[in-house]
Amino acid sequence: MIDVLLGLQWGDEGKGKIVDYLAAKYDVIARFQGGPNAGHTLYVNGNKVVLHTIPSGVFQSHCLNLIGNGVVIDPVTLQKEIHTIVALQPDLLSRLFISQRAHLIIPTHRALDAASEASKGQEKIGSTLKGIGPAYMDKTGRNGLRVGDVLSKDFDKKYEQLKQKHLQMLKQYEHQVDWQEWEAQFFAAIDHLRTLQIVNAEYWIDNQLKAGKKILAEGAQGSMLDIDFGTYPFVTSSNTIAAGVCNGLGVAPSTIGEVYGITKAYCTRVGGGPFPTELLDDTGEALRKAGSEFGATTGRPRRCGWIDLVALRYAVMLSGVTKLIITKTDVLDQFSPIQAAVAYKVDGVETKELPYDLCSVSVEPVYQSFAGWGKPISECKTYEETSQDFKDYCRFVEQYLQTKIGYVSNGTGRDQLLVIS
Ligand code: GDP
Ligand code: IMO
Ligand code: MG
Of 48, 178, 312, 397, which has fewest CB within 10 angstroms of its CB? Predict the structure, then answer.
């Protein structure tokens, strides 16, 4: 079976930490979408590591790690990441596999991302500028370059054709980007890529399943950044919900087992776009400070606000989440009361449904107030030790979302996790 782990908000819910913990129970960890826009933070023996393309199972030495066909790979970032991880985990390369169908991000994709964002001015998406959107555009536009192409003798020709197409496109933008200096690095990274284990991943994963291996699919970004169901156009360019696993790994829906959905005990967003529960006041600032809410990939300050149960219920519905994981509960230790949005007033009318276009309506969250935790959760070693107020809050969230909470995370460390069910 393939279990799935997804972010239910706008990303950065703590997926890296949880995958690193859960990986102890799995044989294979597989990324199925996204690319180096992701930044998954892990603490390994006290060292902070941020993973962008490599699955978060690399530090459990029995785990194989697959970068699936749904991922877009920047060979330069991948090479740098491998270099960093090998220093900590020397056997990495023997446990890393890459789908030949995964698409490549080339230097001019990054230039197009930057030029397109600059041309939008105030309306910009707030992209991570890693070339994600342009690379997925070439994939669906049937122009893309895939990992398997690096093994073909025509690779340089194919690259040149795609680059020329991009150069024509870049001419329409005022903002010019100096991408040429990235090209030498890119070709060095392509040489490195050729030395890695490039596999026919859909057969590879099928063989793992037939051998009875346990697989965990690791999502990147979050459900509200999904290309179809997120806060379009302020989204990323892939399907971040559970459905993306089938496309992104080449597996049948019947192979999917547990779907873990992760949410913070509050909410953050980095980049532009609607965020109904955003706090632009001192409380928002206090959340940012207490939660160290700065982007793992870009270092940008994350926008902060209260948990949004309306959006969470939507995300749980879209992916059929079977188990919830609530992270960063310790960040709320110092807050009382704690608010949770339980409905929206959309143009004055109360609803529990997410509107089609959050950008074009006026949305006012309806909050339910909860006492703070009382006892600091960061000091608790088991769920039983937590305060009654915290337990009541958990029951409320479970009832609202009609889903059981499996784990509560109360710190950055691998073992700072309270098991509930
Ligand atoms: P991801 O993209 O979902 O993997 O999340 P990020 O790594 O971008 O951001 C999550 C941040 O929160 C990281 O700095 C984690 O170390 C940190 N983190 C994860 N879980 C907890 C938690 O329970 N408590 C605290 N205080 N920090 C956490
Ligand atoms: P992880 O996996 C948070 C956001 C960007 C921007 C929008 C589009 O660490 O949770 P893109 O570069 O994809 O074109 O940017 O999506 N974004 C993320 N926000 N966490 C992420 O990944 C993100 N990946 C993209 O900030 O608003
Ligand atoms: Mg992140």
Answer: 178
